[in-house]
Structure formats: C-alpha cells, structure tokens
Amino acid sequence: MAEFKSDIEIARGAKKQAIQAIGAKIGIPSEHLLPYGHDKAKVSAEFIKSVKGNKDGKLILVTAINPTPAGEGKTTTTVGLGDGLNRIGKKAVVCIREASLGPNFGVKGGAAGGGYAQVVPMEDMNLHFTGDFHAITTAHNLLSALIDNHIYWGNELGIDIRRVAWRRVMDMNDRALRQIIVSLGGVANGFPREAGFDITVASEVMAILCLSTDLKDLEKRLGDIIVAYRRDKTPVYARDLKADGAMAVLLKDAIQPNLVQTLENNPAFVHGGPFANIAHGCNSVVATTTALKLADYVVTEAGFGADLGAEKFFDIKCRKAGLKPAAAVIVATVRAMKMNGGVKKEDLGAENVEAVKKGCANLGRHIENVRQFGVPAVVAINHFHSDTDAEIQAMKDYVAKMGEEAILCQHWAKGSAGIEELANKVVSLAESGASQFSPLYPDDMPLFEKVNTIVKRIYRGDEAIADKSIRDQLHQWEQAGYGHLPVCMAKTQYSFSTDPNLRGAPTGHTVPVREVRLAAGAGFVVIICGEVMTMPGLPSKPSSEKIFLNDQGQIEGLF
Fold first, then answer.
1. Which end of the chain is more exposed for a tag (fewer CB within 10 A), N or C?
2. Which backbone phi and psi does 285 adopt, to 5 degrees?
3. How far apart are CA 515 and CA 167, in angstroms?
4. What is the pLDDT of residues 235-279, one digit of tens each?
C-alpha cells in the first residue's frame, strides 16, 4: 500500500504566499490587513464597511451525514470545493470556523481540512491562532466576575443567587468543571452558590460574535444577555451590570475576520467556532457576508450532520442575516455508509456492498431534509483509498433513485484536480436559479411548536417531550417578547434521535427536552435534549498523549 503523508506533514510542506498577496486576490489592500506573522491577518472594519454596497456572490453550504468514527471530511470537502471552483476559473472564497482546543486535545482533531485540501497555517489554526477564542473566554468570564462582584458589594440589583443563569467557560474539555460551587472560603469571598463551566464554543458570547453584523451590533447584543433573575423572576441584563462596554473592548479585534490561505493559495476566512451540537455551528456572519461581497462563490460549512448544522444554518444564521444559499453539498463516505449499515470500525476495510446499501438510509434522510428548505443539493462522495468501485456505485445508484446526483471526489489525495466534477455541478446548480430557500418555520410560531416542527420534520421523531416546568418557562419567555426567536437544538450529533447509538434513519422516537436556556443576546432559545453536554469530557486516551515537539522544535501529533 502507498505511504500517505499525515495532514501536518502536508501542511508543513505548503508553499505559502505572503498574506498581502492572498488579500490582493480578492481586492483587500495591504493597509486593511492587520498581519499576525506572515501568513494570517485580520481584515479591518473600515474595509468591511467599504464593500457593503458590492453585489453578492453565490453562497454554497457544505453539510454532511451524521458523523461516525469512520470520518466524513466535511471541512476537507469545503476547502477542496473552494480550490476546485478557483481551478475552473471562478473567484471563490472558503469560509470555515476556527478550531476549539478541546477536541484537538480530546478526540475529534482539528478543523483545517485534511490531505491536499487544507487551510494553512494548520498548526496555528488548531492552536491559539489570532487569539479570538481567548478574547471570547475572557469577555465571558469578565461578565461572570462582575455578577459575583455585584452580589458581594451589596447586590443593588436584587439578584436571586439561586437564579444566576450565567456560567463560566474555558476552551478545554474538562468534565470536572461541569458542576461546581463558587465563593467558598468565608466572608471575604462572597456568597457560596452553585455554578459550572461550559466549553468556550458553547458560550453565548461566541454565538453573539458569530451573529453580529458589526461592533455596534455586538455591543448591543452583549448588553441584551440575561445573566440572572430576581426573586420576582424579572431578568437582570449584562447592561444592568455595565458590562457590555468592557466586553466589547475585549472583543474589538476578535470580531474582525481572519484571512488565511488554502494549500493552493486561495483565500479563506476562518472566523468564529460555535459547536453545532450545542450552539448554532456556523462561521461568523461578518466573514460570510464580507466574502460574498468579494467573490463569485463563497463555500461555507455548518457543523456536524445536516440535522444539526444545516438546520441551524438555514433557520438561525440565514434567517437572521438575510442570506439566501444557492446550493448545498451533502458529504458522505462509503466507510460511513458501512458503519450506518452495521459494520464495526475495524472491519471497514473489507468490501461490503450490502452494508453500504443499508447505511444509505441515513444519507437519504439528509437529502430529503435539505430539500425541505428549498435548496438544490448534490452529494459529494469523499473518497477513501479502501473504497471499491462496487461500493461507490451502490451509493451513486441510491442517490440517483432519490433524483439527485452523487459525485466521487478525490480532493484529499489530489487537491483541486480531484474535485473538478463537483465544482462544475455546483456552478450549474447555483446558476440555474433553482434555489427557493425558506426557513422551516415562521418567526411567530410558538417556541415549543418550533421544537416539535424540527423533531417531526427533520429528526422524524413522534414528538418532543418536556416537563411542565420547561413548557411554562418557554411560555414565560413568549410573554416577555422572546417568542419570535428561532430555537437552537442541542443534542447528540451521532443520531437523528437523542440516542447516540441509534444510527441509520430511525423513526418513531421521542425527543426529551432536559433544559432550556434563553440566549437573548445571540437571539435564540437553546433547547437541550437528551444527555448532550455543554462541557465535553476527555476520552480514556486523549489525543494530547500523542502531541509533542520534535527535535527540530516542530509540532507532531496534531491532526
């Protein structure tokens, strides 16, 4: 078998251009790039404002089937398609999210693509990058500190310390911090109360940064955050603590998109990083809308499977930002089909056409779901070297029976040369004007009905179930004027149900709602379902065990 280079080896061998040259390709003058070293830069707010009158390019969403341990390659396909569109003469920009440190040192790995379809600098992107996540963590925890400080100095706002809704965050998987007690240690340290940590990518501040249109909008949204409730259950806002101004100051650079490049020296915006199994899972509105003003095509992704990422992209991001996607790409692999068809990970190397056919039900469900939003779709079969012709043909035949096309893509091994066919198909879909995009539900639908609409139409469950206290809470928020907000479903990414082990295309399940959180600043209501955690834990053998510096001072083990 041929030896394959690791992602980090390929990235290290990249022939990068100076970031000013990358900016020039899409008309960003060097004075509007704020460089972080030679290969990454922030794009100035002044430049972003100056291009607002430009005509929009076409927006392409890359989504996928439910993730499996076999790997799907959604980011890899996003980057490959961006390169492929540039290869066939289109002016294309890639827009992806930044990587969280938690999964990098846990199990999932990075978020820069793979093989010969990567964004570089890979090591920087998967570590501290331009410091955006640290700024978000700091702004979030400043607000946490201000709440407890306000209570300590007399609690003028009358905060009920049993009803502090604002948790703390850090960008690392640490299950020990999920539930904690703060302010122990006597009078000098305040009033003891229950609290907890979420991972930074689940922070409302992250969602706010990704949904804000500019710095002014960011500051207003930060002020709208509900941090706690009084004894009469009236809300206390971040602006009541005079926190919004200082938080915006901490985020003034973080809101500016980061420009980097693909291995083929095409421009990519990497900005924001909310998880899609907890938050809304999309690249920032500022990055996407700016890219649309600078390119013919913008290729962006939404996290995890289409049941989470694409649904939130359409129902939250597109709804709030007024975006109209022209086409969608659904990424699937032969290996993942086999896993959905019941094959164990260690047996994936053996040909099993019947398992592929059986597992295609999961893919079929996602195709049907994307259609519900009125967006034309194509399936990208992300090629692995172990795939056989018969297995690939079985997938193509299944998709053809559904009235769509599946295209084999070899961008991981061949870069843009391996994805030309998909690039041409995406252009024809986008240029056809076939997209009739509309969100799944109207703004004025009651909140729990929105939840049930997603459960029935996207997850194909019978209903959502929730205790009376949760339904009452949703009703109170409707009475307070928040009923028009979209809902952000937090659930396992591995299944259409809330059971991560239930693969394929299950029907007839119920979706239990465990908790609801109002993200008034971000502008959505978080619906926490089943056992999903807003602070992940590390696995028994975390990836961090294999990450080290070699004798040349280079990083090994990142992927």
1. N
2. -60, -40
3. 14
4. 999 999 999 999 999 999 999 999 999 999 999 999 999 988 889
Kindly write down the DSSP assignment for every residue of 459-511, as one continuous string: S--SEEE--HHHHHHHHHHIIIIITTS-EEEE--SS-SSS-TT--S---S-EE
**Does 200 qualify as catalytic in the annotation?**
no
Cα(341)–Cα(352) distance, integer angstroms: 9
Residues 162-179 have pLDDT tens digits of: 999 999 999 999 999 999
Read off the amino acid at residue 114: G
**Considering only CA atoms, which of 46, 127, 61 is closest in space to residue 96?**
61
Tell me how far CA of residue 484 lies from CA of 270, 372, 538, in angstroms: 30, 21, 37
Contact 436, 325 (CB under 8 A): no
| Catalytic residue (one of 25, 91, 108, 230) | 108
Q: Is 448 marked active-site?
A: no
Active-site residue, from 269, 314, 384, 524: 384
- Asked about 55 being catalytic, the answer comes back as no
CA distances from residue 192 to 20, 174, 181, 189 in whole angstroms, order as listed: 52, 22, 7, 8
Would you state the pLDDT for residue 418? 97
CB 513 within 8 A of CB 528: yes
Active site residue 412: yes
Tens digit of each residue's pLDDT (9 = 90 or more) over 112-162: 888 999 999 988 988 999 999 999 999 999 999 999 999 999 999 999 999
Q: What is the dihedral of CA 441, 442, 444, 447, to 10 degrees?
A: 20
> How many Cα neighbours within 13 Å face the side chain of 519?
27
Distance CA 322, CA 305 (A): 23
CA distance 264 to 99: 21
DSSP class per residue in 164-184: E---EEESS--GGGSSEEES-
Contact 300, 288 (CB under 8 A): yes
The two three-digit tokens of residue 367, written as one number: 């195709």
Judge contact between 521 and 320, C-beta under 8 A.
no
